[in-house]
Structure formats: C-alpha cells, structure tokens
C-alpha cells in the first residue's frame, strides 16, 4: 500500500498544474493518468499565453516531467473506487487491484463531448469538425464555415462564429427558427439551410472536409463545421462520493474547488464546462493552494495533540526561554 498527502485523479492541465504546486510545497503527491485527454484529437492548443500552437500531448509531457522533477509521482492508472478511510482520508482503489491511501483527493477528470449521430462527425472531430471558436476559429478564418444548429443556444453560437468568417451557413431542422432569430441571422449575412443532414462530404485527395450533404442529396460546400456538443462531466467518482450537484447535474464547488465532500477538491472541465486549457491550469493551481492550506491546518491540529500527549519535544523557543530564566 502507498500513502500520499494528495492523490490527483486526472493528468490534464488542471491535474498536473495542481500537482506541480503541491509537489513544490513538498507534499507527497500522486497523479493518476487515465490516458484519455479530451483534446487528444487536436493538433494544437491555442489561447494559452506562451504555449499557443503547442501540441496538447507535448504540453502534458512537459507537465509530467516538471511534476516528477519536484518529487511527484505520475503513473498510468484507472480508478475503480474511492472509499473514505474513517480517518479524514481516502482509499483509492485502482482497476488493477492496487490500493492507495490519500489524505486528500483532487479530481480533474474532465468531460466528454457527446456529438449528434451524423455519419463522419466523430472521425473529423477537432480536425475540421470543431466545437470552440476561440480555440479553432482563427485557423479557419475567412473560409466556408458551417454551424450545426437545432439545439438551445445554437443561434447565439453561430453569431459568435461569424466573428471569424464572412461565409457562414447555419444548418437547422425545419421550422425551429423564430422570426427574431431569422431576422438576426439575415442581418449578419448568415445563410440558413433547413433540412436533415445526411453526412459529410470529404475531399479524399486532401483529407479535408469539402461539404455537408442533406437528405435530399443537396451538398452545401463547407471547409469547416462548428458543432456545439453536449458536454457531459466525467463525474462518476464524485457522484459516488455524494458530492452535491447543481440543477444541470454539474458538481458544485467553492471558489477554490472544494466540493461538498470534506477533503475532496475538483478542478477543470469536470466542474467547469467552459474552461479552456489555460483556465483549467489556473483552476488546478488555485485548488492546490487551498488544499495545501487545509493540510497545514490539519498538521497543526495533529502536532498540538501530539504535544499534549508528550509525543513531541518542546518547541525550541520555549526551551530557550526557560534556560534564559
């Protein structure tokens, strides 16, 4: 059995950032890497000051090296169960049977994107089928771009995407748009195509999206398609611990990431669906600072108890004071 001050579950930007802060604070830290980062299909990450354009895998590799450089452990492992140990800590049970003890937990397990059931959509994900205009809009600027509508907020999403291109088409099932929405789209020169999408059309020679095919056979030329996915938190372990959730099913935390479960923090996309890589990293850092302060408070309580039981030597200052007298 291994014992740690903090077990970090999830080795993305939030988890590694937290582990870096904690290991530099001389805590014994373990990061468990499930090996399925959300942005793995993307060639580059953007909007991260000093790291813009870096491959996501490279950022994580650098992060793991930095954490290990300060004595933190980063290992591959899938968590099967979390069990309170009855002493303000937790047992972390891995799928392979290993049991780990942690005084505190930080979950940075991210989220998953659930896409509409359209043939070819998943295969092109993060290449020319995209979800975040702030992450990918600049790379497809001034091209023929589409937005897949039909979901709440999709029209507003299309107006944001319009920031990056003058040639934008909004795809929507028939009879969903209100008069106001039609007027707004028309005013911003956003084309509207109503119908059922059959699939994507590819330029096989260039391995590039070339169009969107409708059920009636019509093909609308497009070079990129923005799809607002359904964002689902990977919060099963937090749910299992009984963490409180909001009305939409997302685990709630305080400003530093503390959940309703004592000793359990959460950071990154598992609690904030809008967090980009840089935001998630910052949240991980903030959680780590609050988490370490919580551990310090517990350390103080424990040492005071030990002192009262005669288990510790008297403080140096007290000894010197007596000798001076």
Automatic annotation (TrEMBL):
Lineage from the top down?
Bacteria, Bacillati, Actinomycetota, Actinomycetes, Jatrophihabitantales
Which is an annotated Pfam family here? Pyr_redox_2
Residue ranges constituting the FAD/NAD(P)-binding domain according to the UniProt record: 4-281
InterPro entries according to UniProt: FAD/NAD-bd_sf, FAD/NAD-binding_dom, Ferredoxin-NADP_redctase_2
What's in the keyword line of the UniProt record?
Flavoprotein, Oxidoreductase
Highest taxon listed in the record's lineage: Bacteria
Record's keyword annotation contains Disulfide bond: no
Q: Which reaction does it catalyse?
A: [thioredoxin]-dithiol + NADP(+) = [thioredoxin]-disulfide + NADPH + H(+)
Spell out the protein name for this chain.
Answer: NAD(P)/FAD-dependent oxidoreductase
């Amino acid at each position: 059995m291994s014992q740690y001050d903090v077990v970090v579950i999830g080795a993305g930007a939030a988890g590694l950032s937290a582990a870096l802060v904690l290991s530099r604070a001389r805590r014994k830290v373990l990061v468990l890497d499930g090996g399925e980062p959300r942005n793995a299909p993307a060639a580059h990450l953007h909007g991260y000051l000093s790291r813009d354009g870096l491959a996501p895998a490279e950022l994580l590799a650098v992060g793991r090296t930095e954490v290990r450089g300060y004595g933190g452990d980063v290992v591959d492992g899938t968590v099967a169960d979390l069990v309170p140990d009855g002493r303000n800590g937790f047992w972390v049970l891995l799928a392979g049977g290993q049991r780990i003890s942690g005084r505190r937990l930080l979950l940075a397990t991210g989220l998953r994107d659930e896409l509409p059931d359209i043939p070819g959509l998943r295969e092109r994900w993060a290449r020319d089928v995209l979800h975040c205009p702030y992450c990918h809009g600049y790379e497809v600027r001034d091209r023929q771009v589409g937005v897949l509508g039909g979901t709440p907020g999709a029209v507003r999403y299309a107006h944001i995407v319009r920031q990056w291109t003058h040639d934008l088409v909004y795809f929507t099932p028939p009879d969903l748009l209100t008069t106001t929405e039609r007027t707004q789209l028309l005013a911003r020169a956003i084309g509207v195509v109503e119908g059922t999408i059959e699939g994507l059309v590819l330029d096989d020679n260039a391995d590039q999206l070339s169009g969107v095919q409708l059920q009636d056979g019509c093909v609308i030329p497009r070079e990129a398609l923005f799809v607002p996915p359904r964002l689902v938190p990977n919060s099963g372990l937090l749910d299992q611990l009984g963490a409180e959730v909001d009305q939409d099913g997302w685990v709630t935390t305080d400003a530093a990431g503390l959940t309703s479960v004592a000793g359990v923090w959460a950071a990154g996309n598992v609690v904030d669906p809008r967090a980009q890589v840089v935001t998630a990293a910052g949240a991980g850092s903030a959680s780590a600072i609050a988490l370490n302060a919580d551990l310090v408070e517990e350390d103080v309580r424990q040492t005071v108890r030990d002192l009262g039981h005669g288990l510790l030597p008297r403080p140096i200052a007290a000894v010197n004071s007596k000798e001076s007298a």
